[in-house]
Amino acid sequence: MATIDITEQNFAEALANNEIVFVDFWAAWCGPCRMFAPTYGAAAERHPDITFAKVDTEAEQALAAAANITSIPTLMAFKDKTLVFSQPGALNATGLEEVIQDVKNLDIDKLRAGSAQQHP
Fold it and tell me: Which of 49, 84, 90, 118 has the fewest CB atoms within 10 Å of its CB?
């Protein structure tokens, strides 16, 4: 599956309609972003069960601000509408694959239960 473009208007809908969503915050002028793009696109092709989205931080400045993006590229991963990963910097293919597998294997209910105990 190819990557999809996310905007402020369809961000919540993308999270609501997909179990796992990876979001790449990028900009056309960003060299590391351009280097990461083929790796991200290849991962999207290998994992059609996951939604891979891209946010152009120049076009979607309000969304980037709401996500507290201070450096690009920044990769975020959501599982069941919960942010479970956020990291600036371009990952290599192996690193990205490790993150994908970690998110797939994550027990979101256990994570939420642990968070609730820490923050009553």
Answer: 118
Strand, coil or helix: 69? coil
CA torsion angle for 81, 98, 48, 27 (degrees, to 10)? 70
Cβ count near 100 (within 10 Å): 20
Gap between the Cα atoms of 15 and 58, Å rounded: 21
Q: State the catalytic residue, choosing from 6, 20, 23, 30.
A: 30
pLDDT in tens, 67-83: 999 999 999 999 999 99
Sign (positive or negative) of CA dihedral 63, 44, 96, 105: positive
3-class secondary structure, 3: coil
Mean of per-residue pLDDT scores for the chain? 92
Q: Where are the beta strands (DSSP E) in 41-94?
A: 51-56, 74-79, 82-88
Among the listed residues 33, 69, 91, 99, the single catalytic one is 33
Q: Is 6 a catalytic residue?
A: no
Quick one: which of 54, 49, 34, 57 has its CA closest to 79? 49
* pLDDT digit string, tens, across residues 39-53: 999 999 999 999 999
